[in-house]
C-alpha cells in the first residue's frame, strides 16, 4: 500500500473524472492522500474532497508561500481560525519560495515562522515547500524545533548533507516525479539517503513522473516514483512501498 503525502486533488483539474480517479487510486493501492491547502480560496475545496472520503483524503491547512501577497495578514487570520476550528491532519503547505517572486520575501519568512509555531502548539506535522532557499529553511526549522515539530520537506532536491540535517531534525524527504527526470539529479541524491528518511508524494496535478511527464499528474502514478527509487536503491518496489508507508504513518500518525 502507498501513501501520497502531498497532492492537490481538490483542484478543478480533477473535476471531470473524480470518481474514476478514486477508482484508480484504489487499484493502484493508494490508501491515503494528504491534501495541502494553498490559500483562503482553496479551503472549501480541500474540505469538500476530504469530507467526501475521509478515510482516503486527509486535509491539511496552511498558506502556501507563493500566495503570500499584500493581504497576507487577513489570509493568515482566516486560515488560523479554520485550522483551530476544524480537524486537520497537518499544517501545509508552508515554506519559502525565492524562485518565482522576491517581492514578499520578508513576509514569506514571517508567515512561515508563524505557521511553524501553530504546528508546534497543535502538535501537527507540516509539509514544507522550499525553493532556492533550502539552507535557510532548514535553519528556521532548527531554530524553532523544540521537539514538537515534525513533517516533510516536500519535493526535496537538496544535497546528502542537507538530507542529513533534515532527518536530524526529525523530518523526512518527500520524493516525487522529479526523481524520474533525467539530469534533475534527485535520483543521485536518493541513492545516498536511507529509505528510512523518505516518504513518497506526487504533488498532483503537477510534476508527473515519466512516462506522463508534461501531462496532468494524479496519485495513482505513485508506483512510477516507487519503481524508480527501487531501481536507484537496488531494492524491490514492495520494500520501497512498505518502508515509505511506514515512514508516512510515523509522520502523520
Ligand atoms: Zn504542493
What is the strand and helix layout of this fold?
Blueprint: E1 2-4, H1 18-27, E2 30-35, H2 43-52, E3 57-59, H3 72-85, E4 91-97, H4 105-122, E5 126-131, H5 134-144, E6 151-153, H6 160-168, E7 171-175, H7 186-190, E8 198-200, H8 222-233, H9 237-252
Parallel strand pairs: 1-2, 2-3, 4-5, 5-6, 6-7, 7-8
Helix pairs in contact: 8-9
This protein binds zinc ion.
Task: Summarize the structure in words.
The protein is an alpha/beta fold. It has one domain: TIM Barrel (Alpha-Beta Barrel). Helices cover about 40% and strands about 15% of the residues. It is built from nine helices and eight strands. The chain has helices at about 20-25, 45-50, 70-85, 105-120, 135-145, 160-170, 185-190, 220-235, 235-250; strands at about 1-5, 30-35, 55-60, 90-95, 125-130, 150-155, 170-175, 200. Strands 4-5-6-7-8 form a five-stranded parallel sheet, with helices on both faces. A three-stranded parallel sheet has the order 1-2-3. Helix 1 links the parallel strand 1 (about 1-5) and strand 2. The longest helix is centred in the middle third of the chain and has 18 residues, at about 105-120. It is globular and about 45 Å long. The two termini are about 15 Å apart. The mean pLDDT is about 95. Zinc ion binds near residues 36 and 203.
Q: Structural class of the helix and strand makeup?
A: alpha/beta
* Proper CATH architecture: Alpha-Beta Barrel
- Looking at CATH, the homologous superfamily is Metal-dependent hydrolases
Residues in helix, %:
40-55%
Uncertain ranges: none
Number of strands: 8
Q: Supply the CATH class.
A: Alpha Beta
Q: Report the major sheet.
A: 5 strands, parallel
Small-molecule components bound:
zinc ion
Number of domains: 1
Amino acid at each position: 500500500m502507498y501513501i501520497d503525502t502531498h497532492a492537490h486533488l481538490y483542484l478543478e483539474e480533477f473535476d471531470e473524472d473524480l470518481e474514476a480517479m478514486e477508482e484508480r487510486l484504489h487499484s493502484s493501492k493508494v490508501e491515503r492522500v494528504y491534501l495541502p491547502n494553498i490559500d483562503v480560496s482553496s479551503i472549501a475545496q480541500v474540505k469538500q474532497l476530504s469530507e467526501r472520503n475521509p478515510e482516503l483524503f486527509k486535509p491539511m491547512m496552511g498558506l502556501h508561500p507563493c500566495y503570500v501577497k499584500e493581504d497576507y495578514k487577513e489570509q493568515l487570520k482566516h486560515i488560523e481560525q479554520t485550522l483551530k476550528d476544524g480537524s486537520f491532519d497537518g499544517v501545509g503547505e508552508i515554506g519559502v519560495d525565492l524562485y518565482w517572486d522576491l517581492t514578499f520575501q520578508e513576509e514569506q519568512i514571517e508567515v512561515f515562522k508563524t505557521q511553524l509555531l501553530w504546528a508546534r502548539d497543535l502538535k501537527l506535522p507540516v509539509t514544507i515547500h522550499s525553493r532556492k532557499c533550502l539552507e535557510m529553511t532548514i535553519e528556521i526549522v532548527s531554530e524553532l524545533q523544540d521537539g514538537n515539530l515534525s513533517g516533510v520537506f516536500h519535493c526535496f532536491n537538496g544535497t546528502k548533507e542537507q538530507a542529513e540535517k533534515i532527518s536530524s531534525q526529525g523530518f523526512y524527504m518527500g520524493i516525487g516525479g522529479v526523481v524520474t527526470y533525467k539530469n534533475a539529479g534527485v535520483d543521485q541524491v536518493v541513492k545516498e539517503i536511507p529509505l528510512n528518511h523518505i516518504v513518497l508524494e506526487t504533488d498532483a496535478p503537477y510534476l508527473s513522473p515519466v512516462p506522463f511527464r508534461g501531462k496532468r499528474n494524479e496519485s495513482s502514478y505513485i508506483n512510477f516514483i516507487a519503481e524508480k527509487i527501487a531501481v536507484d536503491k537496488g531494492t524491490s518496489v514492495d520494500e520501497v512501498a512498505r518502508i515509505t508507508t511506514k515512514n508516512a504513518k510515523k509522520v502523520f500518525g
